[in-house]
């Protein structure tokens, strides 16, 4: 079985990092096909010219091919929002596996070959997630490798939120639970994950999939208050915890000496943590 991996990148004035994003997709090497779809969402900067440059390189076969084949498609139009751009791209996609890659993030080498291997071993898997390298721009903190919970479940999403950021999913699961909710602008992915985890087969892969960039121009870096509003709406929709997990995690970071206590008394810490979460989990929205 030869796998085709379809990647959708929505772009709105993303010229700063777009070339790195595109090249991280096109340079993947291995025994698979790449379908790359870039949706320009009404950019007014140089984004469309960058997209056309790489499209030309693919069309005239100037780009060095490291996989079985690459198709590059792009579409441009008025600004309709990120979720609409995702849906537009996934409607065009023909691959077995789908993913989105935003215009300021990038894949790490050998990601596609590893995901294709896992998919070939078990094509019944609907959703793959893995580790993520978080890259912080314009701060003293530069890179942090985050490792998600390897046993994510729908109940974990409801109670503790998502521990992962990037993923691949089957075309069949997207057709089953999609499209993405275009009324959302910040937690589009979280809403989709809830729907997938309710019906799909999930697999964690011990692989650093990609780098997620946090900087002043990104939604994640500059509009956390709006994420909080939408996250609450989604938790209400799916019966999640009333006390926001993100608030608990932020509070934990402010408790002096808690990391030292965890290292010195891991058993006591684990027991106390379980008691705490069992209490928090008593308070849920009704869905």
In summary, what is this structure?
The protein has 287 residues and is of the alpha/beta class. The chain has twelve helices and nine strands.
Describe the structure.
It is built from 12 helices and 9 strands. It is 42% helix and 22% strand. The chain has a single domain (3-240), classed as Alpha-Beta Complex (Spore Coat Polysaccharide Biosynthesis Protein SpsA, Chain A), CATH 3.90.550.10. α11 packs across α12. The chain is an alpha/beta fold and 287 residues long. The protein has helices at residues 18-26, 47-59, 82-92, 111-121, 154-160, 171-177, 188-199, 219-222, 224-238, 245-254, 258-264, 266-280, and strands at 3-11, 32-40, 69-76, 97-100, 106-107, 127-136, 143-146, 167-170, 202-214. β1, α1 (18-26) and β2 form a beta-alpha-beta unit. Strands 1, 2, 3, 4, 5, 6, 7, 8 and 9 form a 9-stranded mixed β-sheet that branches.
- Could you say what the CATH architecture is? Alpha-Beta Complex
The major β-sheet equals:
9 strands, mixed
Number of domains: 1
Please state the CA-atom Rg, rounded to the nearest Å: 20 Å
Shape: globular
Q: The CATH topology is what?
A: Spore Coat Polysaccharide Biosynthesis Protein SpsA, Chain A
Count the strands?
9
